[in-house]
Design goal:
With 316 residues, this protein is α/β, with parallel strands linked by helices. It has a single domain, classed as Ribokinase (UDP-N-acetylmuramoyl-L-alanine:D-glutamate ligase, 3-Layer(aba) Sandwich). The protein has 10 helices and 15 strands. The strands form 2 sheets. Strands 1, 4, 5, 6, 9, 10, 11, 12, 13, 14 and 15 form an 11-stranded mixed beta sheet that branches. The chain has a 4-stranded mixed beta sheet with strand order 3-2-7-8. The longest helix is centred in the middle third of the chain and has 17 residues, at 116-132. The chain binds adenosine-5'-diphosphate and 1,6-di-O-phosphono-beta-D-fructofuranose.
């Protein structure tokens, strides 16, 4: 597809990553460093796409009072900024990267108290934006004040405009979006295992369970279902195949944004006409490449391509 990829983030965040050697809840913890970066799911996707060289436009709802880190990121990476400014400050989310246990703890805040009129204004803007590009990534949670069916409404409108929508969200908004009639469903979704369980309403402990749930969604009319499975890689299901793509376990500097990098890789490969295996390789390579850094950034393309060649693909 031509034109920029459009990313829509209704609930962006400034991610504050605190790095420490061992997190002990209830005790005094000494941090080694703190890093702050503009983030939130669609912003992270845009940032990774820009690093890869894909033209990208970022929109959504951004607090007027602390928009500067976002503007700096967009300018540095050549991301077209079409965010609607709303009163207040964008949330700050805390990410605790424990280098001892090699795990990240996320503390996510609810976000701006926006009202439905802000969403209506954004929806009007989406009509013009989809004239520029048809691939739309709608990613992340909803800010306080918006009802759970907000993503569903946005997708229905985007589909009317002829967009191809990739949705990455969780909880009640995910359930609402997936309960929509066929013509209002996204073309692609990227839940992680927990999010897929939230939709299914049951635990999905085995890979077979995850594959069945992903097929169920595909059969309902979602062209591509990708399920990220942490260090086990990711599952990619479409009408023709189910593939498990993985790399050996990586000691991540920070896992924050790995799912978003995976989404960026998926959409970039899909729009360039890659087959299911090509999409799976690129997506997992983007995610793995991101794990080596704090913030939504990729190394140069050669490193990502080389990683992609080492991805193991298992046909299920
Ligand atoms: N420790 C790890 N080792 C190797 N790959 C990983 C690791 N953690 C995450 N990944 C890769 O990153 C992708 C996204 O991570 P995941 O944690 O599943 O996403 P999300 O952040 O959306 O929950 C995974 O599908 C996998 O390809
Ligand atoms: O939109 P949500 O679900 O509240 O999540 C927001 C958080 O997710 C992130 O986008 C990271 O997401 P992933 O780790 O799933 O890729 C952070 O930048 C942000 O703090």
């Amino acid at each position: 597809m031509s034109g920029p990829v459009i990313t829509v983030t209704l609930n962006p965040a400034i991610d504050q990553t605190v790095t420490l050697d061992g997190l002990y809840p209830g005790s005094v913890n000494l941090a080694k460093s703190v890093t702050s970066n503009a983030g939130g799911k669609g912003v992270n996707v845009a940032s990774c796409l820009a690093d890869w060289g894909t033209p990208v436009l970022a929109t959504g709802l951004l607090g007027k009072s602390n928009s500067e880190p976002f503007e700096t990121l967009f300018e540095a990476k050549g991301i077209l900024d079409r965010f609607l400014r709303v009163p207040g400050s964008t949330r700050v989310n805390i990410k605790i990267a424990d280098t001892c246990r090699n795990e990240t703890t996320d503390i996510n805040l609810p976000g701006l108290d926006v009202d439905e009129e802000d969403l209506d204004r954004l929806m009007e803007r989406l009509g013009d934006l989809t004239e520029l590009g048809r691939d739309v990534v709608l990613a992340g949670s909803l800010p306080a004040g918006l009802p759970a069916d907000s993503h569903a409404r946005v997708i229905a409108r985007l589909n009317q405009f002829g967009a191809r929508v990739l949705l990455d969200t969780s909880g009640a908004p995910l359930v609402a979006a997936l309960a929509a009639p066929r013509e209002a469903l996204p073309a692609c979704i990227k839940p992680n295992r927990h999010e897929l369980e939230q939709w299914a309403g049951r635990p999905l402990p085995t890979l077979d369970d995850v594959v069945s749930a992903a097929f169920e969604l595909q059969q309902r009319g979602i062209e591509k279902v990708a399920v990220s499975l942490g260090e086990d890689g990711a599952l990619f299901v479409d009408g023709k195949s189910a593939l498990l793509a993985s790399l050996p376990v990586i000691n991540a500097v920070s896992t924050v944004g790995a799912g978003d990098a995976l989404v960026a890789g998926l959409i970039s490969a899909w729009r360039s006409g890659a087959d299911a295996e090509g999409i799976a390789r690129r997506a997992v390579a983007f995610a793995a490449a991101k794990l080596g850094r704090i913030g939504p950034h990729l190394p140069d393309a050669t490193e990502v391509i080389n990683l992609g060649e080492t991805v193991t693909i298992q046909k299920l």
